[in-house]
Amino acid sequence: MASTWFGASVKRKEDPAFLQGKGRYIDDIHLPGMLHAAFVRSPYAHAKVGRIDKDAALTMPGVHAVLTFADLPEPVRRQTLPLLVPHPALRQPFMPHALVKDEACYVGEPVACVIADSRYLAEDAADRVEVEYQPLPAVNDCRDALGEGAPLAHAGAESNVAARFPLRVGDADRAFSGAAHVFREKIYQHRGGPFFIECRGAIAQYDAAADSYLLHVSSQGSHRLKRCMLEMFDLGDHQVRVVTPDVGGGFGPKGAFYPEYVNIAVASRLTGRPVKWIEDRRENFLTTHQERDQYWDMEIAVEGNAKIIGVRGQLIHETGAYVPWGIVLPWITATTVPGPYVIPNFKLDVVSVFTNKIQTTPVRGAGRPEAVVTMERLMDRVARELKLDRAEVRRRNFIQPGQMPYNVGIIFRDGRPVTYDSGDYPACQAAALAASDYAGFGSRQAEARKAGRHLGIGISNAVEATGLGPYEGATARIATSGKIAVYTGATPQGQSHKTTLAQIAADQLGVDYNDVTVVTADTATISLGMGTFAARTAVNAGSSVHLAAKEVAAKAKKIAAGMMECMEDDLELDGGYVRLKSAPDVRKSFAEIAVRSIGTPGFSMAGGLAPGLEHTSYFTPEQSVYSNGTHVAEVEVDIETGAVRILRFTVAHDCGRVINPLIVDGQVVGGVAHGVGNALFERMVYDENAQPLTTHFGEYLLPLATDVPHVDLVHLETPSPLNPLGVKGAGEGGTIASIAAILSAVENALEPFGVTVAEAPISPQRIVELLGEHALGRTR
Amino acid sequence: MKPAPFTYHDPRTVAEACDLLATHENARVLAGGQSLMPMMNFRVAMPDHLVDLNRVGELSYLRWEGEALCVGAMTRQRDLEFSPDVGRRCPLLREALAHVGHRQTRNRGTFGGSLCHLDPSAELVNVTALLGGTLHAASKRGTRDIAFADFAVGYMTTSLEPHELLAGVTLPLPGDGRGHAFVEFARRHGDFAIVACSALIGFDRGGRIADAAIALSGLAHAPVRPAAIEKSLRGEQPGAAAFKAAAAEAGKLDAMADAYVTTTYRQHLARVLTYRALELASARAGERANG
Amino acid sequence: MADTRNITVTVNGEAHSREVETRLTLADFLRHELNLTGTHVGCEHGVCGACTVLVGGTSARACLMLAVQCEGQEVVTVESLAAGGKLNPLQQAFQDHHGLQCGFCTPGILMTLTEFLREYPDPSEAEVRTALTGNLCRCTGYQAIVAATLDAAKRMRGGA
Fold this sequence. Notes:
The structure holds three protein chains of three kinds. Chain A contains 19 helices and 29 strands. By secondary structure, chain A is an alpha+beta fold.
């Protein structure tokens, strides 16, 4: 069947409600009798917690309960929050309790939960809970944490090492010993956070009659949270329903399970009333997961012609206080390093380290931007040392399209070898260079220098594992009214699932995409789901919707053929009818067919068909599919202030077949903006006691409309052979390659002064430091 | 992040407001709320009494008295930004306002609120320092005038007594023929500057610098008027040599440091921005002299 | 004893009278007393702009105002923009250009731009970007918002 909707830039179905203030986000939900929670949180990064006096708080007006660890029910006290992705390399899988039992391990760790009539009153009472703290030495830097005699992030731990693991391809040491050139780079990449505009939040409602919980939560995956609730409370499948309403941005960390959700469920059961908790921005800075702090010490070995023969080195990755995602982040980072290049010998030793800071889990890009920064810094170094053009060095090392599928030789986090399914990396870079007028940059730069302005250009290439398994599911169902619904566990946070999944279903069912309603992220509507993260929804949910809708279409034809006494092959679907191709007026409506499909009371079902005009599919990809992209940044650096302005930004990217170009463009451009923040602005500052000093948006600088460049986009489409739609993920590529391109451009602008850039973010102050006397500019 | 409880007062006159401040302990004055409200939401500020001046009409005015601009403490930043008279008669103020926050904060934010909050980098504080403004305080005991130099006594601390409020400020206008400049370096549009520099320059008939005024923000708790540098510029031929010499001296002024910005970088910016401010102000003074 | 006041505030043309605690912010008043949940709360310290509404005709952070300060005032929120459920030109341009993704910052941005386009009916791209500096968006990278605003201005000048 030809695509009517797949590939079309149709308008989003989500928008009319959002534009009129009629979205329904977590804090927009008001349940009768609802109470509000506020948390008492550790003011210390590391402390023993002693006596908690809640008497004063309990006597405050409007206060219903104060929970401490001792007040939690037995199954909750017995265990820590579930570790979602265990791994044998994880030596010390520390996870937090729902409330601090006796030791707080980061500033903001919840110690007590206050329930009151309003958030105002709950905060008043939280201020009155008296907690005895005995401060312990805190670990604030993952390098120091590895040192002899360093304080321990967890009292009684064997060390601060969460995990160590090696990655090996070929024999790197042997390759290095025979190399023409070896270059070494030390690179630092700082933390960044999701900083969605809607903070986290949840509402728990305990139903005593059914002994069950309904949890509304601003999340990236209702089903995984349900699983966590079942395990924490030792409940049966029927006792928890999790619903995710509209979500105001997720970027990774809303996919995790947090202690607050457990507490409000406990409180709802205790008080017999629904309990809401909305994270405020201060809590968001302290307690929502962030990403990275990585220190790299890397070497690259090349032949005289710049062909890579090996890459080796060490990565110190900070996991923060706990390991909710195991070693997923450093593992993705490590396996992303090779990127689009042929690297015959590769050796990376990774250590993931505990500190007394908020835990690090995937944020948009999920460890990949760091790998790309590292690899692309090495490539620039090779070009500089060998006096070659940076694009040329990359061109000489690309995996060629004829080598696809290409086995990189390492194992990805999905347990499968990293095998690139498809892509044309040389073509992608060539397209980006052409669109950015890379060839003309030399004269632009020279012209500007005459006027005392310093322009730079930077290139980066990235390959991104997307569409990770294990699966996502979809049920397509036509009601007896003829109305079409698609249910999925995918959980959108702005990615437009309600539009794109409707487009996919509409093509199979021969209807307008507006006639397909997509219902997401309600555990009551589909039994299994993973959620939306890792640029996986188009591949997993998209394929499932395609398969489910296709089955429903086939079933509709089969039933209609019986009703109309014709051959299925003579039928087609159009506008809510199954009709004769030869005589379109001869037709049966979806409603008539759906009524027939559910049977008639007392009569036998005919034809051996399963009842219902519906089908459920779980697409289970055999491995990840690999998107790729080339970014070119052109910047101007004011050498006197260190200010960086991005003049031009070009992205050529390939995410396979595109469901909705308008939406994919938005994903890519938005991703670049996130990268601009990581490259130039976003910084979390902690003091020596691991106390966060950056706790509001006046200090944590998100890029503004005046900081983000206009992004020029070039699309390439290399369909993936690994799913029925030929799609790949698109949500993270914008971030993954952009940081490296910007750093490269800044370095290029400062080339006359011998400045090299080995850290992100790079601040104006740091640029001035690196420039030394040169920064005096005209004032010299 | 909800404010702690307080008792709210909304007086209609300065006298009423002063009465309230005289009779209540731990009272805070609420002006535009763009700084105090965030502090209350964070519970960094927890006043028992909040005296809201937004309904005190007599505190909102913009008057020209001879060669001075008189601004009420409750005059909104937006009203100054959109006043054609301010643009014409005090373009320095207009230039500074372009760096103040964002349209939503300028709509509510007041001149007096900015002065009393006294952020070390605040643009309006800088302009008041450069122009040598006089602040008018009111209390139940009457009014008193405070020279700007005596107003800023410490980090975000003014010399206003707890029972006093700021009623307005008088800004002497730069004389005819002065060139002005307001330049700053902030990380993003609308952020408080790391360092800001404003300057006024007048030429003598021979085209030499007759007088120069400079105010540097971001080095200390309040804008610095480097008297020695100002003096050293007098009689100099305007141009790179004079600006460089002045800039080099500005780069040697004491500067504070915090968790984000070093002393060295602030001093460096002081040097760079002094040069830029002098250059721009001189160019404008030259245009005025010739125009 | 909580400090309370009786206030009457006109929101989107309709007068609402309530007894409120004086510390209640305008944002919480709109959302939780009047159930006008289109005004979003993103930071409660006046930076993100998600709570931007018009008070007395000019844009303001609803998290930095107290409900009591709006006694007798006119407040306009995002819920007023689509008269009769038909998207206005600015809203329509946002949909056409994909100027929103998660939609959370959108109401504040629409209110900011409603004021801005009144003052700048024929803005440049640079003016639009400057006007947007008081609103954070983490999804779009602003590009589609800028395009939508320029297009909306054009449509509005054309009387569309």
